User: Fold these one by one.
Assistant:
Number 1:
Amino acid sequence: MKPSRSPSPSPYRPPRPSTLPLDVCELVADAVLSLPPAVASQTLRSLSLVSRGWTAAAQSALHRDPWLSFDAPDTVPPRTYARLEALERTLAARPDLARGVQALDLGRYTARCQTEAKVDRRLVSRLSVALVSACPALKRLSIPFVTHVDKMDLVVALRELSMLETFIFGEGAATPEPWVIHVDVSIQDTWGTARWTRADFAALSTRWPRLKRLVLEARVRGRDDDDDDGVPWALESFELALIRNTKLSFAYLDKLLAGCRQGSLRRLVLKEHQFEPGALLAFLEQFGQNVDALVTSSADRVNPDKTLVAALPSVCPHLRVLRLASPIASDVPDTLQQLSQLSRLTHLTLSTITSSLSLGDAQLCVDHLRGFARLEEVELLPGAQVEGSTNALVVELLQMTLREVENRWKWETTRGKPEP
């Protein structure tokens, strides 16, 4: 009996050219990007192994918005920092892929890097600068932090991003600085988070002619009485998401968004409690004339801002979407009556009603809701401090009215359309 022999390994066969045109492969790869990131990433990796044509299309799509999986636990390599290093090496070796990177979400990954052993803030900072430098065609960038000594290198890289449309600035988390009082101050200079000023952004904004969206997750330094013209960018969307309870003045925001004074802003996402008293209304009076979406959140669930609600129809007359977190007291019917003057409003959320509605108040709400011209969706939500629940009859009455308003709007919008 002959001894059995182990089968010989299959010879390596290089990928064959795809029988599909390259543009078809690219369209399929682009469609894959609409899937959830984890699924899209795995699918594109599989497609890159099919053939040479699929390799080019899949790799290009895969690096357009690089995504790193968080599925593996922290103890299983490769960890986040190692994966970012591998990405940087790939982009350095493949300029063709680097030129195709359109989005880089460093804020998603660098906070996790700092929790890993043998990875310090300086290493994360240097790697962040290297990744930004490698991607000259970025349209969307989230950069949480760099250390003091790396700031100028990052500024040089940022100056080259002439295609940038969205800039997310800040850590998005209140991480402690790595020094202690009475320790050598040089530690702060080397390891501490770089300070950014209004002048820094003013200089960069001239290099970003396409910038339309700013998300501010860290405060930009600048004094209200500084003799400067402010930052000249003409943004369409501004989001304020500071971590600490900083109180911003109107003068501070006026100079930070100086280029938006002519009405470029269309969308605002703001934390109301991070404004000094009266600053939010003053800001909307100056910048809100063309805003069509206003979304707010607030840690203050007690003190109603009646002045803001009453002024909205005049300072933001083009609002279509309003999600307001200003506490609304027992005058909900008055609030709805005032907001019904917003003739273009389609979506309304009042999320901090501070008291239960009586049946009489509910009837007034019904009457005022019928006065909205284009309302499609309404949410009236009680604040956390409301004791008990609103009477079930009141809730049913409001729900019936909301359905009536929505159905009326849908009927009016489809009335003039021919039947399919």
Number 2:
Amino acid sequence: MTETFRDPQGGGSLIVAWQAKAKTVLVVGGGTVAAGRVFNALDADANVTVVAPKLCAELQHRVSKAQITWHERAFEDADVDAADMVLTALSDVQESRRIAQLCRHKRIPVNAADINELCDFWFMSTHRDHSVQIAVSTNSRAPRLANRIRRQVAAGLPRGMGLAVEQIGRLRRRIREADPEPASSRRRMAWLAQLCDYWPIEQLAALDSDNIDSLLDAYVRQDDPTAVSLGARAGEHSGGRLVLVGAGVGDPELLTVRAQRALREADLVLADKLIPEPVLRTIACEIYTARKFPGAANEAQDELNRRGLDALARGKTVVRLKQGDPFVYGRGAEEVLFFRQHGHEAEIIPGLSSAVAGPGLCGVPLTHRGVADQVLVLSGADRNGGLPLVPPFLATRTLVVLMAIARLAQVVELLATTGHPPDLPVAIVERAGCADQRTVRGTIATIVDVVERVGHNAPGLIVVGHTVNVLSDAAIQDRYLDSSMLGLHSVE
């Protein structure tokens, strides 16, 4: 019987992962393209030498950090003698050609930027996650399209893939140390292959030192890797799902579709104390509300974290529900880091931040052509409880201050000392997105008295700038606005 073998297609590149550690890579050129080549070489633990009369800012930084060796001059032929690889990134095409031909004569691999026919190899579009590297090549036909392909491939990878590879690498080394005989190679490979093919990536990523010890013992006994039980500790990391969800500004209809789905799928919701009741009424599962009061915030956060870890250990889906957007003064990143340290990677679902959506819901645009072209968002208190650092007044800037109504008088005084004029419009946006939302308007000079007279309904934020009255009839009298640009005006 004649076997049929596939024919080579041709036209491709021989794709390898070159071991560059401790090898010398020579980069000729000092611009941004050269900086990219240098970064790639450093990422592979190469020794990098740069030859160029001048360096861009990134390469200057690398020289200052002693990450590279720099020869401050033009290229000399003798520079290639100590190189294992040469990369040119020059605007002088003829010099690049000459260097490439010199390298080829000396049998040194060379890449000449933007001169494909002179390249022994090309750089690919790469995705890196720990030891996992995925490279996409279009054989220099369409490098921009390679970036798009790489992004789509990376988006489809299981969560924790890179960490899983690191942990399996640790286990593989331990097994080789325990059973180093060459004759055991087939047995080691077969056992690890079963483990890698059967276990979920997320569970492999969550292996810790105790788990690896247990797996090593299982290998020594030659237990079936698909039947190994790691006990309660492994259960902490497998099966449970953690989702960090932004609840938006308070109206359930303004929750994102993904947030609504996460809340439907949740077994436990850990909610901020300020989550509005209408949002909580959409949740069918158990809700634990953080009891954060002055003087007890840390204890309340510890209790919330403990409940989350307990539920994840039981394989539950836990939603951490935070007001607004978790990453806009919501300390969401701190919680991501906490759970990551305990082996759980959070899925992130952003929410509408009151800093941006709140003013808009109450008829206050943050930018407006000819009026404001930038927005600065500040917290009303720094981490030590002090007032924020406010830059000098700029007429085309809108200032949004969160969590500051209780110290409104202090904020206004601070604005006055930084050059903000007394007649600058100010709005207090209250309970944006709720049925009883309200906008209270005034100026730097009057807003404190106005709020004392009409009262305040928490939560709220402060908007300062000439956009405050753009959609208000009062804006027509504002000397900073062209009335032809105001459009329709709501009646206050």
Number 3:
Amino acid sequence: MTIREKLYIDGAWTEPDGGHYEVVNPATEEVVGLAPEASRAQVYEAAAAARQAFGTWSRTRPEERAAILDRAAAIMARDADAHTLLARAETGATTATARGMQVAVGSSRFRRYARGALEPVEEALPPQINEAGPMGKAGVFGAVAVRRPVGVVTCVTSYNNPWANPAGKIAPALAMGNTVLVKPAPQDPLSVFAMVRALEEAGAPPGVVNLVTGSAPAVGEAAVDSPDVDMVSFTGSTAVGQAIGEVCGRAMKRQLMELGGKGAALVLDDADLDAAVMGIGTTFSFYSGQICTAPTRVLAQRGIYDRLVGKLAAYTGHLKVGDPAEKGTVVGPVISAAHRDRVESYVELGRKEGARIVTGGERPDLARGFYVAPTLLADCTNEMRVVREEIFGPVVVVVPFDDEEEGIALANDSDYGLLDYVWSGDVARAFRIAGRLRAGGVGINTIGRNMEAPFGGFKKSGVGRDVGSYALHAYSELQAVVWPG
């Protein structure tokens, strides 16, 4: 039976004004379900419901907000098997990725922000002695900085992880006492409906969480420009982020933007090449390269350049490309036929620009599905578009450099600055280089993340920081309270 969803507005499941559109399995090209096509008026209605609910929810005791988030996490975990199958079907992620990196991370983020709802929001400031003057009598003045909820937050989420990404927005926003309007990516919104159902079952009051979807740009535009929306949290392309930023700027709405990336991986001549290959190689497999944090732009010192290219080529030979439901599959499809065509056009562009295609470059011989072969482009230069632009697929480009100074300069010669990486046997050297990289995060000899560390980008990779307690800060405003001692 095909899933046929409704909008969730003010605690009620509502038929969409615009009918439904098909959500397609990128591995089989079969219809997974029907997602609602909201009208602009319905989006505004959802935002108004969030505005109406904000007063009561923002004054709800933190312990009550924490209990609802914790129950929601437990409900998500309870139904993890079904959620895994749904996530795999609508995203094309492998079973292991859908289970461990999508559904499990989604529920764990709700648990994290259940605790986050109980974190202190006040910071005492040193008292200040003021002399008598135009502002009043002399005295000692105390002060405290208090984090208050922003208000109504629109959460526009990405297609590459329909569990972790929405959870990383919705949970901290609710923990801080905000209400939310959720607009998932049109390609794979069905998992977000499951997340909202968990919140409903957990006892989230009507209007606290509202969910609208649509394949038309007008739905997202309404979710951003509604006068009831105080803040927009967006994950997606830099171009769309810039358009959202213009709307927010005119209305002075708060923004949290996690945008594109073209992560530089500096591999120095003293690096453990096998470790570097294991890290860089995840670009070929993890979400089929559809991840903004991937080390897609490899800068290899000439002393190890040929060996590194050879090892990366050998790595791709062990990757099984195919149906993510089959055991042993490492590389699944990209999200859509249109995106497959886009990635392939970049590979062809690289060929024309003079890059050497070491592996890949041909469409996998599979009867159905939107597959792209893991592709390695060597002998690149920093001027090539395949090096400068985000491809968002299983494509790695390699650029040689001579010395440390040139490597740092190449890494920083980018419009992006989300996550960079340094592989070196000299940790002190790697830390020194990290301090000179214009990126929101730097991994040293690892692609691993510390999930309490701030996450966000420099330059066109975004505005603001989230993850851990930094997400609670992102979804709050600072208020100063001053009193005479």
